[in-house]
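INTERNAL AUDIT FORM
Audit reference: QA-55
Scope: verify that the stored structure record matches its stored sequence.
Auditor: D.O.
Record contents follow.
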Amino acid sequence: INAEYMGVPKNNLSQLPFFFMSSAFVDDDGPPPLEDVSIPTREPILIEIESDDSRQELVSQLQLALPEVERLTVIRCLWARDWQLQAARELCENIVRWRNEVRPHTISRESISQYEMTGKAEWHGKDRFGRPVLVLRPRHHTPSVDLEDEARFIIHMLERGCDLMDPHIVTFTVLFDRKDMAYANVDMSLLQKLKSILQNYYPERLGLLLVLDPNFLFNMIFGTVRLWMAARTLPKIKVLDARRDVLEYIEAEQLVHDIRDSLDG
């Protein structure tokens, strides 16, 4: 693996971008055929809890201990901490403290407009499950020295995504378009910051990650670091060899125009 090409020291592969540190390729059975895809009324995590009395009890215990925390947040924290009550409580408390200090809902669109105008990230449409879709175009990203300002942009985008979720949805989909991505667009510091924000303050919000235009190097690295990921994360990551494969997960009319137009190319 040519880790140095990605700006990573050979002796520290843990610094690889978080989107490499997931499952590699589409599951052996592949995605379900289009005619079999249906939108459930609730997320699988919520359906699973309904049939598990022990997990319902853990949710109730944590809700009783932290009445100020929403039930869905309690469930996500328990899920993220493998249903370990004390660890999940600490995660919930950390989220509450962080939100009180940072007040993410007060980050205005105007204050981060210079980042949004680049086109490197935007919410557009929903996938076949009903999740809002975050489109990422790393080709429009230039590493910045102002990491905290970039972090504010990330937080603002995540808050907007949560606002776009229907009541039965608790996760979002990321459409990672690697078209024309170059080494100059790789931003290890920002990726590590994003990973930290997602894990610590928005646990279990990622429902699906679709990667377009993987190249040889990407597949090499991805095929190795997938071994480090938690088992529950693996099915969330889909590396699509053909751009039209995105239609398995997102209907054409829900795709942003530049990606939809590229399917005919």
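Auditor finding: record pair retrieved intact. The CA atoms of residues 29 and 235 lie 11 Å apart.
Action required: none
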